[in-house]
Amino acid sequence: MTLDGHTPSTSDYDKRSVAQDSQETVVVEDVDSDIEAGILVDSRGGSGNYTVSVEETGP
Predict the structure, then answer these.
(1) What are the respective helix, strand and coil percentages of the chain, to the nearest 5?
(2) Which of 51, 57, 59 has the alpha carbon at shortest distance from 27?
(3) Distance separating alpha carbons of residues 30 and 36, to the nearest angstrom
(4) How far, in Å, CA of 52 to CA of 1, rounded?
(5) Domain segments of the chain: what residues?
(6) In Å, what is the CA distance from 41 to each residue of 20, 34, 54, 56?
(7) In this predicted model, what pLDDT tens digit does every residue of 1-28 receive, in sequence order?
């Protein structure tokens, strides 16, 4: 995930998940209201379908 809108890569990102299972989460706190997030889904192996959800919370 990038926080400036550019497309992330496996070596260029601001935040990432390091979970070893398929249920991964990335939490970004204290975010400006005008943020443009870039999201990359990458598999270490295998194939299949992916679901990406973005939840905005707060005032």
Answers:
(1) 0, 5, 95
(2) 57
(3) 14
(4) 12
(5) 1-59
(6) 14, 23, 13, 19
(7) 999 989 999 999 999 987 777 788 898 8
Q: What SS3 state is found at 30? A: coil
- The beta strand positions in the chain, using DSSP E, are none
**Which residue do the tokens 């070596």 mark?**
11
Say if residues 13 and 40 touch (Cβ distance below 8 Å): yes
Contact 17, 52 (CB under 8 A): no
CA–CA separation, 12 and 6 (whole Å): 10
Token couple for 17:
């998940």
Q: What is the structure's pLDDT at 50?
A: 84
